[in-house]
Amino acid sequence: MNPKRVEDSKDPLIVGAFAALGRAARRARTDAIRTGADLVVLINGRIVHLHPSDLQDAEQADENETVSHSPRGSNAGRKSPAIIESEG
């Protein structure tokens, strides 16, 4: 099986939906930072609560076009993102 990238689809609705999901994710991250609320996401089948400081670090990394998965100084003394086993 040779999976195709969504961005390479010939169907403009699929490409547009993928772009809309990206915009929605950025908006959710921005709103979580603005309100100080955790952002709840599913990563590798697990429900993960991301603290706003983790999100700010990710946004800064996106702006610098680098991604760092190591804790930064702002998170010192704080536990890494809370991971809750998903049901099912």
Describe this structure in words.
The structure is a single chain. The chain has 88 residues and is α+β, with helices and mostly antiparallel strands. The protein has one domain (6-85). Helix content is 41%, strand content 16%. It has helices at residues 12-35, 52-63, and strands at 39-43, 46-50, 82-85. The chain has a three-stranded antiparallel β-sheet with strand order 1-2-3. Helix 1 crosses helix 2. The longest helix has 24 residues, at 12-35.
- Reading the helices and strands in chain order gives HEEHE
User: Strands of the biggest beta sheet: in what spatial order?
Assistant: 1-2-3
Average pLDDT over all residues: 75
Largest sheet: 3 strands, antiparallel
| Number of distinct helices | 2
Low-confidence segments: 66-80, 83-88
Q: Quickly count the domains.
A: 1
Label the overall shape: elongated
**Cα-based radius of gyration, to the nearest Å:** 16 Å
Distance between the termini: 27 Å
Q: Which percent bin holds the helix content?
A: 40-55%
Q: What would you call the structural class?
A: alpha+beta
Q: What portion of the residues fall into strands of 2 or more residues?
A: 15-25%
Number of strands: 3
